[in-house]
Every structure is written in structure tokens, then in C-alpha cells.
Write a structure and sequence with these properties.
Number of helices: 13
Helix content: 40-55%
CATH topology of the domain at 162-264: D-Maltodextrin-Binding Protein, domain 2
Distance between the termini: 48 Å
CATH architecture of the domain at 162-264: 3-Layer(aba) Sandwich
Shape: elongated
Radius of gyration: 23 Å
Order of helices and strands: HHHEEHEHHEHEEHHEHEHEHEEH
Number of strands: 11
CATH class of the domain at 162-264: Alpha Beta
């Protein structure tokens, strides 16, 4: 059967905005009209496509249809723009990425290409262990993830390893870890954590010191630059990527609390097998830059 474009647009609008009311505003329709289109699509396909909660969320079937609709929309927009040779009408590409990649290597990897091809990025930021779910849910077309296995219909490409060091300011070390990092001191010293999905600090403390989560005080600072600033200000200690701190350790502005025990996070680029030409070029730019700046896989 051929999918009705208007019904597909209504479904995507509800999933992207989270409600029938906001979708109606986006599509210049009434909420009732949007609801009728989504209901008609569900009846035609013979399956529920969304759970009508607040916000609305897709069912498994809805996720698969949303994946198809977003890829189709991107291919159509790119084709129309190239056929008409239209300038000033850039295509938007939704991707998911972890905050540390966004704060370090990703934008330099893509900036020249995005400017040249007049592409817009629609970036969703999440922990590298959770970005995969955005692709699975059909919310993005590609993403950076710690998951090494490709989902059905997708390809996975190794990017490289992002190395983290457990860093603290000299004054913080003098106050809390004058005798070196140890279990007793770590019970009281405040740890910097990105957000409640971030387990890189807790995994280290569990593995190296036997300290379970919630057995030490934490600051939650969900922004990469602010997180790094908090380390430099002595608010706490935490894992910082090598690409971010540069030579601050060499200059003595920060101290590596575990110089022989870095934490390496392997990163992968996930994308759909069937891609538009511009998306294929974007994939190539990401892979080229990431492999030049990240550590290679062992």
C-alpha cells in the first residue's frame, strides 16, 4: 500500500513535538484534524503507532515507521533542492551525539562540509551509552555511540577511542587527596558527574576502590565546558577527555589522580545503510576527522 504523505507528516509532527496541539500549530491544522489523520493511518496499517501520553511516544511499529518517514523526507528534500538548484534552502539532518564529542572534535569535523553544502544540524545530546536509543526510536539519522553492534537496517563504523583522565585542581588534591587517592578519602571528596546517566566516574570508583554508587558526595553538572570549569575551580574531581584538557596537566594546572589508569571509551558511528548522497558525504567527514584525532582501537 502507498502511504499517505499528509498522514505521515501528522504522525511525525506529533512524535517530534510531543502533543497533538503542538503538532497542529506546526502543520496549521486543528488538533482534531491531526488526530484524525494519525488514527486513519493506524487503521490502514492495522496497528497502534503511538501511545497517547504526555508527551506522546511511538510504539515499536511507530518507531519503525518514523525511521522510514524521516529518511524519506531527507531524500525528498535533497532531491527537490538539487533538481531545482535552489539556493538558501538547506536540508536539516538530525543526529545524536555524546556531549564530550560535541565539545571537542565533532563540529570541527563537519563545519566546512555543512557550510559548503548548506546543511543544518539538528543535534540531540545524550550519554554515549544512550545515543543508540535515539536511532532505534527513529528520532535521528545517525549518531555517535559506545554500542559496537549495528541495529537492523544500519551500519556501524569504528571512530576511535576517547581517553579520559581522573583530574583535580592542585588545591583540591591538597585538601582531599594529600596522601593520594584512596578509599577512605574518596568517601568524603565530592565527585563531579555529568548527569545521572553518566557512569564513568562511578565505574572507576567501584572498580579501583570498591566504592559503590551513592557512597560519596556528587555534583551534577550536565554541560561539558562547565564540568571542566568545575574541575579547574576545585569544586570536585572527575573524568575529563584528553582532547579537552590539552597540556593543563603538564603545566601543573591540573593533577592526574590515577596516571597509570586512564579510562578509554570506544566510540562508533551508526547510520542507516540507505542514505542520501549528502548524508553519505557527512558520514565520510565524520569518520575522517574522528580517526585523525581520536586514539586508534587496540
Amino acid at each position: 500500500m502507498a502511504l499517505d504523505v499528509r498522514k505521515g507528516e501528522a504522525l511525525l509532527a506529533v512524535l517530534e513535538t510531543g502533543s497533538f496541539e503542538q503538532a497542529a500549530t506546526l502543520l496549521h491544522l486543528t488538533p482534531s484534524a491531526v488526530s484524525q489523520r494519525v488514527k486513519a493511518l493506524e487503521e490502514e496499517l492495522g496497528t497502534p503507532l503511538m501511545v497517547r501520553t504526555r508527551p506522546c511516544r511511538a510504539t515499536k511499529a511507530g518507531q519503525r515507521l518514523a525511521q522510514y518517514l524521516r529518511r524519506s523526507r531527507l531524500l525528498e528534500e535533497e532531491f527537490v533542492a538539487e533538481l531545482a538548484e535552489v539556493e538558501g534552502q538547506p536540508v536539516s539532518i538530525p543526529i545524536a551525539v555524546n556531549n564530550d564529542s560535541l565539545a571537542t572534535w565533532l563540529l570541527p569535523a563537519l563545519s566546512d562540509f555543512l557550510i559548503e553544502k548548506q546543511l543544518l544540524l539538528d543535534i540531540t545530546v545524550d550519554d554515549q551509552d544512550h545515543t543508540y536509543a535515539w536511532l532505534e526510536a527513529g528520532q535521528v539519522l545517525a549518531g555517535v555511540s559506545a554500542a559496537a553492534t549495528a541495529m537492523r537496517g544500519c551500519r556501524v563504523e569504528p571512530l576511535g577511542v576517547m581517553r579520559y583522565r581522573l583530574l583535580a585542581a592542585p588545591a583540591f588534591v591538597a585538601r582531599w587527596f594529600a596522601m593520594g587517592i584512596n578509599r577512605e578519602a574518596a568517601r568524603d571528596a565530592p565527585v563531579l558527574v555529568f548527569n545521572r546517566k553518566d557512569v564513568i566516574q562511578s565505574d572507576f570508583l567501584q572498580r579501583e576502590l570498591g566504592l559503590p554508587p551513592a557512597s560519596y558526595p556528587c555534583h551534577y553538572i550536565p554541560a561539558s565546558e562547565s564540568f571542566y570549569q568545575a574541575v579547574r575551580l576545585g569544586l570536585g574531581y572527575g573524568m575529563v577527555p584528553e582532547l579537552q584538557y590539552g597540556d593543563d596537566v603538564t603545566r601543573g594546572e591540573l593533577i592526574d589522580l590515577a596516571p597509570n589508569k586512564p579510562t578509554d571509551v570506544a566510540l562508533y558511528w551508526h547510520h542507516w545503510r540507505v542514505q542520501s548522497p549528502k548524508m553519505e558525504r557527512l558520514n565520510a567527514e565524520v569518520l575522517k576527522t574522528a580517526r585523525a584525532v581520536l586514539r586508534p582501537f587496540y
